[in-house]
Amino acid sequence: MSIYRKVEVSMWGDEKFRRLTPLPPSGQSLWFYLLTGPHTGIMPGISQIGRAALAENLGWTPDAFAKAFHEVFREGLAKGDWEARVIWLPNAIKHNPPASPNVVTAWGRYFNLIPDCSIKVEAYNATKSAIFGMKKPFIEAFGKAFCKPSYNPFANPLPIQEQEQEQTDAYQEEESYKIDLYKKAAFVGVSQ
Questions:
Q1: Rounded distance, CA 1 to CA 95, Å?
Q2: What class is the 9-93 domain?
Q3: What is the DSSP string of 27-44?
Q4: What is the pLDDT of residue 189?
Q5: Which residue spans of the chain are classified as CATH 1.10.10.10?
Q6: Which stretch of DSSP H or E encloses residue 81?
Q7: pLDDT tens, 48-88?
Q8: CA separation, residue 141 to residues 6, 34, 102, 137 (Å)
Q9: Which residues pair with 46 in a beta bridge?
Q10: Burial letters 1-22, b for 16+ CB under 10 A, else e
Q11: Which residues on adjacent β-strands are paired with residue 81?
């Protein structure tokens, strides 16, 4: 069983906290900042911020930041696209799953604001994989929030007359439903 603690993002701006000795440049310091810093958004693990801003926020030189980032990258804890100014923590969603389908919907709105890049595609695929391991309401919320409307696999393509016909199987088995939707969602959302 894991033990968690809540950390308020606002601590980084707190006057007393800022008077403390700053974090020295290191992989551990950077990792803690990437997890809890004010640049983090509502969707776990993906943020829009560049290396210069991160280094400046921490009070580090660009070289010290590069060395610390190399450490967290080497361990597979973070990836960065410095041209798009996107940071991604691949395992964040495993440790911060959505509490409800409404959270997934909010994630979709936030995710649309992240610049398109290869890291965004990786984050999309990891999020999709995590959500498709959850219950049906989460999967449906993902489909509505993350898939482009014109390619939405959750939209019913049948004409109204056919929709009114009696359906013999109202619900599919949960696992077959997930597999079917996952296959459809593989071709929508973020373009590769």
A1: 12
A2: mainly alpha
A3: HHHHHHHHHHSTT--SST
A4: 47
A5: 9-93
A6: strand 79-81
A7: 999 999 999 999 999 999 999 999 999 999 999 999 999 99
A8: 26, 27, 7, 6
A9: 88
A10: eeeeeeeeeeebeeeeeeeeee
A11: 86
CA-CA distance, 86 to 73, in Å (whole number)? 14
Size of the chain in residues:
192
Task: Report the relative pairing of strands 46-48 and 79-81 from DSSP bridges.
Answer: unpaired
pLDDT digits (tens, 9 = 90+) for 100-116: 999 999 999 999 999 99
pLDDT band of 3, cuts 50, 70, 90 = confident
How would you class 89 by CB atoms within 10 Å of its CB: exposed for 0-12, middle for 13-18, buried for 19 or more? buried
Contact 145, 105 (CB under 8 A): yes
Amino acid at residue number 31: W
| Residue percentage of the chain with pLDDT more than 70 | 76
Contact between 93 and 134 under an 8 Å Cβ cutoff? The reply is no
